[in-house]
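As a representative case, we now present a protein record of this kind.
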Amino acid sequence: MKSEMTRNKIIQQTICLIQESDGIYENITIRKIAEKARVGVGLINHYFCSKDNLIEICVQTIISEVISAFRPELKESGEPIEVTKSAAKQVMDFLMENSQISKVSILGDLKRPKSMDNTMKTVLGFATYLSSGQVTEKHKLNAFMITSILQEAFLRKDCLPDSLGIDFDNKEQRDLFIDDIIERFG
């Protein structure tokens, strides 16, 4: 019981440090985490084995909460494709604005996939938009393809100008890419 409370305290204080650093976690040290959580450095290593493991757990928690709270501003006509485009653009804007933690979350899901990890929660969200509420296996598959392509493009955003001629830092180009992907798979 006490060990679970200590573990949760370390996670919560690490999340605070990540948020205070605007998601740039490279400068967060085990010592800073230990000081903020008021525990010994050895306890952090005992519970989490490494700083990277602790950071990934915390980032996955942050992103999971963002996904749960995500309510896109849908100004479109209400047509499923247009609603999905609008939601996808907002998701990509979040990824771009929170690049460091988004990368950790996506790569964590790729390394240790689970049936309801953050990637699959995003898939289900897109499937709901694509279907107008009546989700079928086809909607899920299309949403999976959309999510996979968007994540891959995000992870490769720095080399896309050379390989595909798309500058993901340019919102207009990014939005056109999203429109094209969703038109193909929506």
Q: What stands out?
A: The chain is about 75% helix and 0% strand. Residues 2-55 form a domain with the Arc Repressor Mutant, subunit A fold (CATH 1.10.10). The chain has a mean pLDDT of 92.
